[in-house]
Design a protein that fits this description.
By secondary structure, the protein is α+β, with helices and mostly antiparallel strands. 26% of the residues lie in helices and 32% in strands. The protein folds into 4 domains: 11-190, Apoptosis, Tumor Necrosis Factor Receptor Associated Protein 2, Chain A, CATH 2.60.210.10; 203-247, Potassium Channel Kv1.1, Chain A; 271-408, Apoptosis, Tumor Necrosis Factor Receptor Associated Protein 2, Chain A, CATH 2.60.210; 438-607, Potassium Channel Kv1.1, Chain A.
């Protein structure tokens, strides 16, 4: 029997709202606020006669039509969790007691929708888009947005004087971010869990801290009487001018420019693109249903519409009895016709599409009430799937990519400058590969690796202690630093991550078995040198390689190196009938019992029915 879990689903979104404030000190002055008959009983029950509901939490209901409120400006609407929302901004507060404050509220903008339960957080952003020094408002409880109470928020969000004196107000404009989490249905569904969450790259913060601390600085600049300490190799990696000034002769680069006058425009075909991964657990058991019968996935939201995937284990018709069929279906009951294209692809263990089992049509289909679904009657032969490596432990995964066509329009191309994404990792990768001005060498086995002390120290607290801390005297000599208990390929992969925040392709594309082994060794190295993100990347990768042949050794590895997500993934695998019994006679299980004897009781407690 397939394992079921109770899932409380939620949709989450972040909206950044920019306000261009009216110049000349223009103000909105609110009228007198009185308590209406609708709100008075609830306010009095809470010991509050002010007319503000739940005032102790700075959250109020402002949608009662009998309130004579302050004036507000509404944002554009946005969609979260299948509902429409907007933000109300009160420049001079929403009432007399908040006249010196800015009030802000989240409004449920679906007039005919059912009630929505949501929590929110408002924060003022600084110049770089991060929450500034001003206080933020976070509502931890779920609020019910209904026809009577459509708005919740803060009538005392920020003091206007504090805002005007802060750096968050620049060029007479401020930005407010609203994080919204909408609670959806609670349902029983197949368990598909994400055991490890890999955080985004923080390389820029680590180098920022190195610059601020000045540790290991080896060059100083004087600018208008002020001194700035920096690191030669970082400057050279990021700037060709600094490379020439600090490590070589200045080299002029010839550049030619052509001046062209005129105007331009563009035809814009707007589209929303997203994907949904469907995991079929217990494939052999789904074969019990007949030809033409299907199993539906959970619904997912994309482009303001709800969708689901239909899975036909024995084909969608008598002509396709030896095949597996997949269809994308529009589930929005009151939606007009939707134009979209879809692509279905079988995923390998790494989560990458299998080119030989991908079905894509460039034709834009119209999904409507009379024709709600489109798909592929012959996605893959059952025999081909069952003989392939994509079916593992009676499971396989399919990804559906959906592109929803929006409106077509003509517009002037008014964007004159395109800022490219950060290329710091490419700069540092070239610095590593070139070996230019390296100042430390490592000996691993029979191989030697050249690197830069400040880069290693910025990325690893262990290297910081070894190269610039109490242990630095030990490594001041020009002789290579000997690294024991590590393979050269593992150290090279770790060094590549330190400079680029990613693993080299060779570490992930060398075959199924070797990928798992490499990930295990790199995880141990990451734990040794305090590279937490690299450790989580390896942990997440190993979650996809758990089998009866690897579960015991993987569980021992997770226990020894504090990998909670990987440990839970192993427990989840061993709860399946027969898996624990299969591994108990293996050498890996003997290693587990000898290396982690305390883990046995926890294992039995987690896998017991």
């Amino acid at each position: 029997m397939a394992r079921k879990v109770i899932v409380a689903a939620a949709a989450f979104a972040v909206l950044i709202l920019s306000f261009l404030l009216p110049s000349g000190g223009c103000k909105f002055y609110p009228s007198r606020l009185s308590i209406c008959d609708l709100c008075k009983p609830r306010c009095q029950d809470e010991g509050n006669d002010s007319g503000f509901c739940d005032a102790r939490k700075n959250c109020i209901c402002v949608d009662c039509s009998k309130h004579d409120r302050g004036k507000f400006i509404s944002s554009s609407t946005f969609s979260v969790g299948g509902h429409r929302w907007c933000i109300r901004y009160y420049p001079d507060g929403d009432g007399l007691d908040s006249a010196d404050r800015i009030s802000i509220f989240l409004q449920h903008d679906d007039t005919d929708a059912v009630d929505a339960k949501a929590r929110f957080r408002f924060s003022v952003l600084n110049e770089i888009g991060e929450p500034g020094p001003l206080p933020f408002i976070q509502n931890g409880q779920l609020n019910t947005f209904s026809a009577k109470n459509r708005c919740w928020g803060s009538n005392k969000f920020v003091e206007r004087k504090a805002l005007e004196e802060s750096a968050c107000l620049k060029d007479d404009a401020l930005r407010v971010r609203c994080n919204v989490t909408v609670a959806k249905d609670i349902r029983c569904t197949e368990a598909t869990e994400q055991f490890v969450v890999v955080p985004p790259s923080n390389m820029h913060r680590q180098f920022g801290r190195l610059l601020q601390a000045g540790e290991g600085a080896d060059v100083t600049f004087e600018v208008a009487g002020e001194m700035f300490a920096a690191h030669r190799c970082v400057l050279a990696a990021r700037s060709p001018v600094f490379m020439a000034e600090l490590f070589g002769p200045m080299r002029e680069k010839a550049m030619s420019y052509a001046a062209v006058s005129g105007s331009s425009s563009a035809i814009v075909a707007e589209a929303v693109t997203g994907s949904h991964v469907l995991k079929i657990e217990g494939y052999s058991r789904t074969k019990g249903i007949g030809n033409g019968e299907f199993i539906e996935s959970s619904t997912f939201a994309l482009g303001g519409h709800l969708w689901l995937i239909r899975y036909y284990p024995h084909g969608c018709g008598s002509d396709n009895a030896g095949w597996i069929s997949f269809f994308l279906e529009l589930e929005h009951s009151d939606a007009t016709s939707v134009k979209a294209s879809s692509k279905f692809c079988l995923l390998d263990e790494m989560g990458e599409p299998a080119p030989s089992h991908s079905r894509h049509s460039s034709v834009i289909r119209t999904f409507k009430a009379s024709v709600p679904s489109w798909g592929y009657e012959r996605f893959i032969e059952k025999k081909a799937l069952e003989e392939s490596t994509y079916l593992k432990d009676d499971c396989f995964r399919v990804r559906c990519d959906v592109t929803i066509s929006k409106e077509f329009r003509a517009e002037d191309t008014a964007r004159f400058v395109t800022v490219p994404p950060s290329d710091m990792h490419q700069h540092l990768a070239r610095l590593l590969s070139s070996g230019a001005e390296s100042d430390v060498t490592f000996r691993v086995g029979e191989e030697t690796f050249a690197a830069h002390r400040v880069v290693l120290a910025a990325r690893s607290p262990v290297f910081m202690a070894e190269l610039f801390g109490p242990m630095k005297e030990k490594h001041k000599t020009s002789r290579p630093i000997q690294i024991s208990d590590m393979e050269p390929g593992v150290f090279g992969a770790m060094l590549h991550f330190i400079y680029t925040d990613s693993l080299p392709e060779a570490a992930v594309d060398t075959g199924d078995a070797s990928v798992s082994v490499m990930a295990q060794h790199v995880l141990v190295a990451a734990d040794r040198y305090g590279l937490e993100r690299l450790k989580l990347i390896c942990e997440d990768k190993l979650c996809g390689y758990i089998s009866t042949g690897t579960a015991a050794t993987t569980l021992a590895l997770a226990e020894q190196h504090g990998c909670r997500g990987l440990k839970e993934a192993c427990f989840r695998f061993l709860r399946s009938p027969g898996n624990l019994k299969t591994i108990m006679g293996s050498d890996g299980f003997q290693h587990l019992t000898s290396s982690c004897p305390s883990l046995l009781s926890e294992l039995l407690a987690n896998v017991a029915p």
